Amino acid sequence: MSTIDIPDEHDDIDGIEVIDIRSGDRSTPFEHRVEPVSKTTKAIKFLENHPDVQISPAAVRRIAFGAVEPGLLEGTRLERHRVETGWLSIITYRAYTLLLSPAIENDRLLDEAHYAADPDTSGHQRVLSMPTAHDTDAALVYTDAMDDLLAAIDRASKRVRENNPQEVGRRIVERPLTAVPATFVNPGHHPDEDLNIVDGNSRWASCTAGIKVPASSINPTTAKDPVQLLPSHLMRLPLAERRDLVREIVKNAHRDINASTGMSKAARNKRDQAAMLLNAMTVPVQVIVGYTDDNPDMGMRRFPVAVRSLLMRMNIGVKPFDVSSQNGVTAEEIVTALFDAGELGDNAQAVKDVLLGRADVTDSMKTLGLNPTFRDLRFTFVVQQLTRKEPRLNAIMAAKLDKRRLYISHRSGPTVELGLRSYSSLPKETMASVRTALDTGCLWQSLADYEWTAENIDNDQAVDDLLERADNDDIPARLLLGVIAMVNLVTSGNLLAPGGSAEQIVGGIKVMRANVGAVIKTILDTREGRQVLADAIKRIRANRRPRWWADGHLVERDDWKGSDFNAHLRLAANHGFNPEGYQNDPTDTELEDKALTTFQASLTTAATNLDDLIDMRKKNGTTNELPWILVEPSFKQLNFMGKALARISEDEPR
Asked: How far is residue 563 from each of residues 481, 488, 511, 546, 550, measured CA to CA in Å?
């Protein structure tokens, strides 16, 4: 039986050629040949002695053993690539595809993965811990158990094979992949290092999609049927055995070409399949072999950030991250940057771990004085940390979000994605509804205007005490009450995104169709509203329906669904809690207040749109000034608005 079994393609195109990948003398017929180990000695010595190569001897051997022409590595020139925190050193060569492994990440699935920060999470599709930095080497260090890493890699590889197939085999891969050395803290019986791709996973997956090998080539077994080659199969093999597998596949492919003579369809198909395999067996690769931080005192600490930034910037074309996943990655960049800049306070490591939520947060939550069994408390802590007023924190966040000025709306996306990691075990349909509600806007300006703290409100008495302080005009207490209540109401399905049949539920009366943050902000301004919110926290935590305010006290509405509570809460936000019934027509004063609010909100939107225009010009490299005839109407409108507003406003205090 042939080592390779690629399914026949029903294709009449004949004569696929094995493409010559040599860089030197081409006078002799070309045949793939995995070089003997002796040919790698000089390359290994050169790389080990190069001052800008900062990787382990094991990583150097992997590079040399995987090179199609290891002799070319001797004397190769290192390139320097600029990233946000410093410079990456990179070497470029052609490698055997099977001596590289796909990325160890599930960032593309961040909105679907289960997080350790969720007390109810399971091991299924558990998100991986972020890689850490090696003390001295330009390598990513992974602390998860090897079985978890391999499961994630196989899952991601299958996903990109389905979602972004590449045509390889008729042609060789010409666009370089990017790889980085990786080290495993808990390898078990597997090799404790590898070369892992950070860009080009779709190309790698397509190169290997059709390869089947005898099970005995991967793992000692009595099974005879060939199996599809997965990344986990390769990563289980010692380096020498992995290289021998490549040699066997290449040798057998050439054997099939030479043995399949004649012009029959079967012979042509056999030759074409073998030629396509050989063309897919090599890829150009850029391997990161060094890193120089802009701050020498940082050493290699920010190397994972540099690689992660490179990954984020590369994944923008045909396969961009979903918005939620992109927000998750950006949020992690923000948290990591704040940690590196010393902006996370005295318990910085605990704050970082709680914000990221990838690892067990029990001890870290306790360090911060928060009960780790309450998911709403962690979400509230995320909101508090990402709405702090510190200028340095805001500058870092604005830079990561690529914004010239930081508005409350800009903070929402990263806040939602980090906060929802406490609820990652919710059913997919429920999570979609929750994310939609929060994405409409879960933050309000007061959260950034006032200093407030995420306190350990973990029992009914603590909620009652918080309510008492909120009723006594304690603004930080009101904000804390509002956030905890919002998290519970949204995640339980009792506060939904604006829209739908809310007005039909309340008899056609106009409800507030603003985002959930605006609804909570408005409800907090009334004593009855604060009673409803505090009671909702206690009851939702106890898996009971929230009660409503009627006839001067809280009453149970057993026939209400979440949509009913949502409709009445939005109605109360528009008209207040009135025991005699709601007024469909607001007063003149209410109309004026709403008109002012609408006007001010439109200014915020306009300022954001202007920032987006400026950012777009910057990205596009546009330097020419806009013609005056084009912008004159806007200037005149702004001037008119300023004069009109001044006529109805007090003078600015001096």
From this structure: 22, 15, 13, 12, 18
Between 11 and 158, name the one with better pLDDT. Answer: 158
Long-range CB contacts (within 8 A, 24+) of 72-78: 72/23, 73/43, 73/46, 73/47, 74/42, 74/43, 74/46, 75/46, 76/46, 78/50, 78/52, 78/53, 78/289, 78/290
In 3-state terms, what secondary structure has residue 298?
helix
CA angle (91 as vertex; 88, 95 as ends), nearest 5: 135
Which helix (H) or strand (E) segment holds residue 434: the answer is helix 428-439
Q: pLDDT tens digit string along 368-393?
A: 999 999 999 999 999 999 999 888 98
Q: What is the Cα Rg of the chain in Å?
A: 30
Sign of the torsion angle spanned by Cα atoms 243, 244, 249, 254: positive
User: Helix 375-386 and helix 408-419: axis angle, to 10°?
Assistant: 150
Confidence band for 578, pLDDT divided at 50, 70 and 90: low
**Helix residue ranges, H only, 492-587:** 502-505, 516-524, 527-541, 562-575
Q: Is the pLDDT of residue 22 over 90?
A: no
Q: Which amino acid is at 140?
A: L
Query: Is the pLDDT score of 12 beyond 50?
Result: no
Confidence band for 317, pLDDT divided at 50, 70 and 90: very low
pTM score:
0.68
Buried b (16+ CB within 10 A) or exposed e, 429-458: eebebbbebbbbbbbbbbbbeeebebbebb
Mean pLDDT of 404-429: 90
Q: Which of 12-26, 225-239, 374-388, 561-575 has the highest mean pLDDT?
A: 374-388
The full length of the chain comes to 654
Top pLDDT among 168 and 351 is at 351
Axis-axis angle for helices 527-541, 475-491 (nearest 10): 50
Burial 384-417 (b: 16+ CB within 10 A, else e): bbbbbeeeebbebbbebbebeebbbebbbbbbbb
What is the arithmetic mean of pLDDT over 627-654? Answer: 84
User: With pLDDT > 90 as the criterion, what percentage of the chain qualifies?
Assistant: 46
Q: How does pLDDT run across 531-573, given as a tens digit for each residue?
A: 999 999 999 999 999 999 988 889 999 899 999 999 999 999 9
Q: Which residues pair with 346 in a beta bridge?
A: none
Give the 3-state secondary structure of residue 582. coil
| Residues 484 and 541 sit within 8 Å (Cβ to Cβ) | no
CB 482 within 8 A of CB 489: no
pLDDT at 326: 75
Q: Residue 189 carries which side chain, given as an amino acid letter?
A: H
Task: End-to-end CA distance of the chain: give it in Å, rounded.
Answer: 90
Q: Is 632 left (phi over 0), alpha (psi -120 to 50) or beta?
A: alpha
DSSP string of 144-210, one letter each residue = EEHHHHHHHHHHHHHHHHHHS----SSS---SPEEEEEEEEEE-TTS-SEEEEEEE-HHHHHHHHTT
Task: Please give the C-alpha separations between residue 102 and each of 273, 276, 304, 362, 524, in angstroms, as whole numbers.
Answer: 24, 21, 17, 32, 50
CA dihedral 302, 329, 375, 472 (to 10 degrees): 90
Angle at 455 between CA 327 and CA 128, to 5 degrees: 35
Residue 45, token pair as written in the block: 């010595």
